[in-house]
Amino acid sequence: MNNNTFVLELLTAKTLKLLLPLLSLILLVPMANASTSASATGSFTATVTITGISQADGNTIITAIETQTLSGFLTGTRIAEGVEIIHPDGTFNAHDSGTFTGSVNGMSGTAVITGSSTGTGATGSGQFVVELGTAGLSGLHAQGTFQPTVTGPTTVTGTYSLQYHFDP
Predict the structure, then answer these.
(1) 129 - beta bridge partners?
(2) 3 Rama class: left (phi>0) / alpha (psi -120 to 50) / beta
(3) Contacts of 103 (CB under 8 A, 6+ apart)
(4) Which one, of 109, 85, 89, 86, lies nearest residue 99 by Cα?
(5) pTM score
(6) Where are the strands (E) in 1-106, listed by range?
(7) Quick one: DSSP state of residue 122?
(8) How far is it, in rounded angstroms, from Cα 166 to Cα 73?
(9) 42-73 pLDDT tens trace
(10) 97 within 8 A of 81, measured Cβ to Cβ
């Protein structure tokens, strides 16, 4: 064995002896992870208060405040502000965001629900995200789909389904 090999083996052994306690500490640290994702469903009713109507390029643009009552997995009330654009061909697209106050699996708090939808006439489909929970809803993350149906000039009903998890 030459001197270079001996020095390399000595340095490797010293390095391993120094790193071994550090490696064992790293292995003892629990890994952060989210709870397993689960599915849930529910329904909603909504009343819309129109705050503005305008026209542009044949489109009707409606701004509104929507008050939703949710049941099922999400149980409570959501107040949202949004915009709906009705196109000359009868199709629409809408977007809103608002605060949900209620409970999920027996835990109470608030969360922000943001959604968007498209459709024709009185029916449509959309997607939404639930995030920024407080109190018992802290750590709640969900995304899902919903199917709204216009039931009157300022009323809507529908169903929703979602995937969710709670961060630990």
Answers:
(1) 114, 143
(2) alpha
(3) 75, 76, 109, 136
(4) 109
(5) 0.79
(6) 38-56, 59-72, 74-86, 91-104
(7) T
(8) 14
(9) 999 999 999 999 999 999 999 999 999 999 99
(10) yes
Q: 23 is written with which tokens?
A: 């490696």
Q: Cα(62)–Cα(104) distance, rounded to whole angstroms?
A: 31
Superfamily of domain 38-166: SO1590-like (2.40.350.10)
Burial tier of 142 (Cβ tally within 10 Å: 0-12, 13-18, 19+): buried
Which tokens belong to 96?
């809103």
Domain ranges of the chain: 1-31, 38-166
Which two tokens mark 48?
A: 């819309």
Whose CA is closest to 149, among 160, 136, 162?
160
Residue 68, number of CB atoms within 10 A of its CB: 21
Closest CA to 10 of 25, 20, 18: 18
> Could you tell me what percentage of the chain is helix, strand and coil, using 3-state DSSP and rounding each to the nearest 5?
15, 65, 20
User: What is the reported pLDDT for 155?
Assistant: 97
By CB atoms closer than 10 A (0-12, 13-18, 19+), residue 32 is: exposed
Contact of 148 with 124, CB cutoff 8 Å:
yes
Q: Which residue bears the tokens 């961060």?
A: 167
Q: Which residue has the tokens 């959604």?
A: 115
pLDDT score, position 168: 81
